[in-house]
Specification:
D-Maltodextrin-Binding Protein, domain 2; 11 helices; signal; alpha/beta; single chain; 314 residues; transmembrane transporter activity; ABC-type glycine betaine transport system substrate-binding domain-containing protein
Length: 314
């Protein structure tokens, strides 16, 4: 999946006051690479789950070696809380999932939209709020249907539609999934899965339910750390029932105008371009396995060559 170059979409500019963050804060600075004449303190917020925290750390550390001081506020809340914090000036930017921006924040439909369409609509929404979106990541983290690899191979499963001919499918998912349009109700309508028996499973217990044989398929997320084991298979969603969920940074236009926009977004986009699904599955596995966000992010950036200041284009 290609990562789109960022672009400013709202006319006008104003210098923003420096934002002083409260909450969990991490600071680094490399003054030798500081862009000239810029106010370089930025506050970034994240949701409270491992992947979002790692993403915040990746941006923080990469920006730090390029001369920015980043106050990283981890666990601000869900998307609607982060959006409000951005509008209130409590944060200057946040970790945004494009489909969530479109569905939860903007209140628009996401089913059937591919990554580019979702990104464009989310970007258009935030343009009207004097906000700017970075380029999006190659990876997505969205709902998906997973089975064991053995079950998929035994039944010739590649897509969600391949479940329809089976005599019965026990689907394990969080209880509310049963009635959601982006859940069982949608699966039945879009893929004709009238052969499904629903089995409520607490979030986080889906893979255990597969292992115990209590479910044939489960609702999963595409960057779940368990997927790195090779024991589970994700079924393709060709109708895009679950929409698209790439990641981008949303930044206040006022703040961006005050911190050397080209340099700042260049760093963010350089990080985003490296974030494949396999990379995120691996980092999520490391964090849930007990390693810290900071260490996992640092090692990834080192391996990607992003632990040093970016060189300007000649």
């Amino acid at each position: 999946m290609r990562s789109r170059p960022w672009r400013l979409v709202v006319a006008g500019a104003a210098l923003a006051a420096l934002t002083v963050a409260c909450g969990e804060v991490n600071d680094e600075r490399n003054a030798s690479s500081q862009p000239q004449g810029a106010s370089l303190r930025v506050t970034i917020g994240t949701q409270e789950f491992p992947e979002a925290r790692v993403l915040g750390e990746l941006w923080r550390q990469a920006l730090a070696v390029n001369g920015y001081t980043v106050d990283l506020r981890k666990g601000v809340g869900p998307a609607e809380d982060l959006d409000q914090a951005l509008k209130d000036g409590d944060v200057d930017g946040y970790v945004a999932y494009t489909g969530t921006v479109l569905s939860i924040v903007a209140g628009e439909e996401v089913s059937g939209l591919d990554p580019d369409q979702t990104y464009d609509r989310a970007q258009e929404f935030y343009a009207g709020q004097d906000m700017v979106m970075s380029g999006m990541t190659p990876f997505q983290n969205k709902d998906a249907i997973a089975t064991t690899t053995a079950f998929a191979e035994e039944n010739g499963l590649a897509t969600i539609a391949d479940l329809a001919p089976l005599e019965e499918v026990v689907l394990g998912a969080r209880p509310e999934f049963e009635d959601l349009e982006l859940g069982l109700a949608g699966l039945q309508e879009v893929y004709g899965l009238d052969n499904v028996t629903f089995s409520p499973v607490e979030l986080g217990e889906q893979y255990a339910a597969l292992d115990r044989g209590e479910a044939d398929a489960v609702d999963a997320f595409t960057t779940d750390p368990q997927l790195g084991s090779g024991d589970y298979a994700l079924l393709e969603d060709p109708e895009l029932l679950f929409g698209s969920q790439n990641v981008a940074m949303v930044v206040s236009r006022d703040k961006l105008d005050s911190i050397d926009a080209d340099a700042f977004m260049g760093v963010v986009d350089a990080v985003n371009a490296e974030l494949t699904e396999d990379a995120m599955v691996q980092m999520n596995a490391e964090v849930t396995g007990g390693r810290t966000d900071e260490v996992v992010a640092r090692e990834f950036l080192r391996g990607a060559g992003l632990d040093e200041p970016l060189r300007g284009e000649s």
